[in-house]
Design brief:
α9 packs across α10. The chain contains 16 helices and 2 strands. The chain has 2 domains: 149 residues, no CATH class; 173 residues, no CATH class. The radius of gyration is 23 Å and the shape is globular. 76% of the residues lie in helices and 2% in strands. The longest helix is centred in the middle third of the chain and has 41 residues. By secondary structure, the chain is mostly helical. β1 and β2 form a beta hairpin. It starts with a helix and ends in a 12-residue tail after the last helix.
Amino acid sequence: MNQKSQPAGETAAGKTGLKAFLARKNIVFSAQRYGIDALGAMAQGLFASLLIGTIINTVGSQFGIAFLTQPVATIGGAEYTVGGLASAMSGPAMACAIGYALQAPPLVLFSLVTVGFASNALGGAGGPLAVLFVAIVSAELGKAVSKETRVDILVTPLVTIFSGILLSAWCAPAIGRAASAIGGVIMWATELQPFFMGIVVSVVIGMALTLPISSAAICAALGLTGLAGGAAVAGCCAQMVGFAAMSYRENGVGGLVSQGLGTSMLQMGNIVKNPRIWLPPTLASAVTGPIATCLFRLEMNGAAISSGMGTCGLVGQIGVYTGWAADVASGAKAAITGMDWLGLVLISLVLPALLSCLFSLPLRRIGWIREGDLTLQ
């Protein structure tokens, strides 16, 4: 009996030891940490680099600001503007943001700069998705060896950087091709069936924006632009503006601004209590999506991350305008027309507010939405 029970005891002790080690290193394998915390942080890293760089370039070119349009640095024969430098740092910014979300110690966090640059460069069009995967793995490996040796100043950066670069070389190109292929299929399907795909993309990306995950990071990882990007913008706006408008009686101007220009994610707690409050903005997105793709042919030809931002800081609208400006400059578009502006305003602001309020009225009458269900804490 003793001989048979000994291995089981050793196994239990081994599991306990591993669990204690992971707890001590703050390594938590969970959907919350990787699918919500890390993904959300990655979107912020993208915003602080690629997206803000695109906005700077757009402002500089549209308003003729010389300092923002002239090169300020030449690296390897390539000239960079202020916005160009910000955009070029998207890989390191994403990786550092992910490391921050994973509560990585300083040496790991700083080493992720190199990891992010490598995985984003090797990932190509699917760089953001490659950065997400590679940065998580290398950050956790770096955390595992951090402060475990007397030469931590050498070991931790070496483990983090080498694991990140090797992993990038091994899988980043494949991840990039896969993400690009999925995004390409979605965009191709939207061009082929703009009505049905307009509904699907608008509803799915819009719901992702309200859920505690990052719709912006999803759009960036898949490179979602063109008509599919326009449908994504429609869905995100329907959620943000829809919730802001239909909850105005409960939340007033503060709620209007915080949800309409901030995020509809603020309603997540209320959705958990009463999922029916999610119906009006979701139905609105199912209407505005195909209107965007079929009637106005609204395209997002700016940065893909903008497709998943909705009216958050008006980033989605700035992204659409950036695409218009680029198309006019390249000759792909003759001019920005009044119909373009009408479509953008209706899809982004007017229809989401109007439709969500209309859809909410019968739900309030039958008691599916009660007074206080939409009140923000």
